[in-house]
Design goal:
This protein is mostly beta strands. The chain contains 1 helix and 9 strands.
Length: 134
Amino acid sequence: MQVAQAVASAIDNRRFKVEVNYMKPFRGPNRHLSFGYEIRVSGDTLYSYLPYFGAAYNVPYGGGKGLNWEAPLTGYEVSAGRKGATIVDMTAYNGEDYFLYSLELMPDGSAYLNVRSRDREPISFSGDLDLRYE
């Protein structure tokens, strides 16, 4: 019960970190990830430190920022999902592209993230909510 309360509190306070350890590109094999990949929400800002594998349709010379950036949130919506999950849909513009980060947080702290953008193929990640993050 305490974990579920911590998850709900983190979402309500807009202050949480999800450490990702598995990546599912739109095409190609799934991959386990090493330490250090995460997303963080702190107030009205989304920090994204994620790898990207997939097709990009319209990116700046040199590849652009990919999924490594920080930007103000332009949208933050919370809804109930299946099996007690909470869905957090976050939108942001990083100066190059528009992104939708759809995060599904389970009561036990496990997390599933789908990332969509205007100029790249979608990609998914899974990991865990860092309950120690403040």
